[in-house]
Amino acid sequence: MLKVRVMPTLLYRDQGLVKGEGFNSWRCIGTPMQAVKVYNMRQVDELVFLDITATNNNQPIDFELIDHLADDCFMPFTVGGGIRSAEDVAKLLRVGADRIVLNSAAVENPDLVREIANRFGSQCVVVSIDARRKPDGAHEVFTHAGTRPAGIGPVSLAAQMQEQGAGEILLTSIERDGTMTGYNLELIKKVSCAVGIPVIASGGAGSYDDMYRALSEGGASAAAVSAMFHFTEQTPQEAKKYLHGKGINVRLA
Description:
The protein is α/β, with parallel strands linked by helices. The chain has a single domain (5-245), classed as TIM Barrel (Alpha-Beta Barrel), CATH 3.20.20. Helices cover 35% and strands 26% of the residues. It is built from ten helices and twelve strands. It has helices spanning 32-40, 63-72, 86-94, 104-108, 110-120, 154-164, 185-194, 208-216, 227-231, 236-245; strands at residues 5-13, 16-21, 24-30, 47-51, 77-80, 99-102, 125-133, 139-143, 148-149, 168-173, 199-202, 222-225. The chain has an eight-stranded parallel barrel with strand order 1-4-5-6-7-10-11-12, surrounded by seven helices. The longest helix is centred in the middle third of the chain and has 11 residues, at 110-120. It is globular.
């Protein structure tokens, strides 16, 4: 049985790390290298690094930065933001990324997911799905850092991405993002039940119990966490101890 992963998420914007609420109201929280060095010491299973402005600003991927961070990152390093081609992926892997994240590009060009999966393996491809609740209660996918409605629901998109060869789904509730009020368990459960690939729960973690519920009730295979680790004294190591005590199969040192 695969072990459940605890995955801190770093959001990169304008030369530094930021965190907001609902994909807005960004606060500066430090530098990427500082965060990498801290998480190296905290028994992190995987680190997710997302450039949230590269796609919107049509900027090239900062391969030099990824190379620099990867040199000091002693855990699996998953990178997203601004990826537009399989050649971008090849270069990211060469400079030290272990996996890549597609968001807007996967929606706009689903064949790119298939191309990358065929070339590098499905385990390399994480498709990020950002979903916002509509007034009628249904969810819609948004791309370009949550600014553009995609006209498709997260369940349908997740199933499509699985068919295209994605190895994992990173599922974020936009309205829960940064609030530390708990994951959207209903959304996680719907997507987890619709696909046979792992789903990473994201958006809303505020406590170890929130993480446990995303895994046990939502059916997620991993828990991505940002604000909770940035703004509270809770840590990945203590999170895994808590989950282990609840019977969750995690990797302990």
